[in-house]
Amino acid sequence: MKKLISKIFGTQQSGIIMVILLLGVVLTIFSGSHPDRATGAQVNNFLNQYTLMQTATDASFFAIMAIGATIVIISGGIDLSVGSIYAFAGVISAMVLRAMGPMDSVPTLLTALTLCVGIGLACGLANGLMIVGLRVHPFIITLGTMWIFRGIAFVASKAESILIPDCLTGFTKATFGLGTLYPVPMLIMIASTVIGAIYLSKTVMGRHVYAIGGNADASRYSGLKVGRITTGVYVVSGLTAGIAAFVGTTYYGSASCADATGYELYVIASAVVGGTSLSGGKGSAISAMFGAVLIILIRQSIRTLHLDQNYEWIIIGLAIIIAVVLDQINARLTSRRLLKSVAEKQNIETIKSK
C-alpha cells in the first residue's frame, strides 16, 4: 500500500491529484447532507455515488476534447475550434439521422458514431492543412474555423434543436445494473485518456509530437516531417471533438448549434491546469483528464458554497494564469539547474586536466 501511495505521489500528476483531493475534502465538509429517499439515512451532498458519477460525467465532455487539445499544445500549437467542431458534428449527424428515418439500434448507433467521428476528423484535417499550407499561426486559423464551423451548424439547423433517436440515448445512459447511475461517458473518458497516454508515451508518433513542440527547427533538421506531424495533431484534436460530440449529443438527447459554446475555455484550461506547457514540449493525457476533473470541481464548489455563478469565470481565469506562471518559474529553475550542472562538470574536467 505504501509503495502504491508513493508511486502515485511520485508522478508528474501528484500536484493536481493533491489539489483535487483537498478540494474534495472541502466540498465534503461544507456541502451538508440530505436524507436518502430509499433508506432515510443522511447522505453527504457531495460524497455520494450520484454526485460523484455526475461530476465524472460532466468532466468527460471536457476531458475527451482536452486530450486532443493537449496533444496540439504539446506540439506548440493551439486549437480554438473544438467547441464548434463538437456543435457541427452533433448537428449534422442529428440531421442525417432524422432524414434517414427510423432504423434498428445497431445501424443507428454506428451511423451516428461514424458521422461524428468523420466530421471531427475532416474539421481537424482542414485546420491542419490550412495551418501548414498557408503558414498562418494556428491561433488565427482555428479562431476563424471556430466561427465557420458553428456558422455552418447554425445555417444548416436553422438554429433549431434537433432530437436524436432514443436508442442512442439509451446506449449512453446504459446503467449496467447500477440503478440511476450512467457510467458510459466516464468509461469513454477513461478509455480515451488511456489511448492518449499510450499514444504520447509509447509510440514514435507521440515522441515526434514532443520533439516538434520542444524545438521545431531542430526536429526539421533531424529529418522529421514537421508539416505532416502538425497536420496529424489537429486531426487528432478533431477526432476527440467528434467523439465528445457523440457522447454529449447522445447523452442529452438532442443537438443544437449552440452546443459547447465556450467549451474552448474549459478545454484549454483543463490542459493548462493539468500541467501542459503553452510553449510546447510538455504535457500528458492523464494530466489533461485530471485538469478537467479539477475544473468541474471548481464549478461544483461554487454551487456548493452558494457563491455567485459568475465567480466561476474569475476562478478559472486565475487558475490558468497561475498555472502558466508556475510553469514559467519551473522552466527557469530547470534551466538554471542545467546550466549549473554543466558548469560544475566543466570545472571538474578542468581540474582533472591540470
Shape: globular
Low-confidence stretches are none
Q: What is the correct CATH architecture?
A: Orthogonal Bundle
Strand order of the largest sheet: 1-2
- Total beta strand runs: 4
Measured distance between first and last alpha carbons? 52 Å
The fraction of residues assigned to DSSP E strands is under 5%
The main β sheet shows up as: 2 strands, antiparallel
Q: Identify the CATH class.
A: Mainly Alpha
- According to CATH, the fold-level topology is ABC transporter involved in vitamin B12 uptake, BtuC
Explain what you see.
By secondary structure, the protein is an all-alpha fold. The chain has one domain: Orthogonal Bundle (ABC transporter involved in vitamin B12 uptake, BtuC), CATH 1.10.3470. It contains 14 helices and 4 strands. It has helices at 2-8, 14-30, 49-74, 82-100, 105-134, 138-157, 166-172, 184-202, 204-214, 216-221, 226-252, 263-273, 285-304, 311-353, and strands at residues 33-35, 42-44, 162-163, 254-255. The protein has a two-stranded antiparallel sheet. The termini are far apart.
Features:
single chain, 354 residues, mainly alpha, ABC transporter involved in vitamin B12 uptake, BtuC, two-stranded antiparallel ribbon
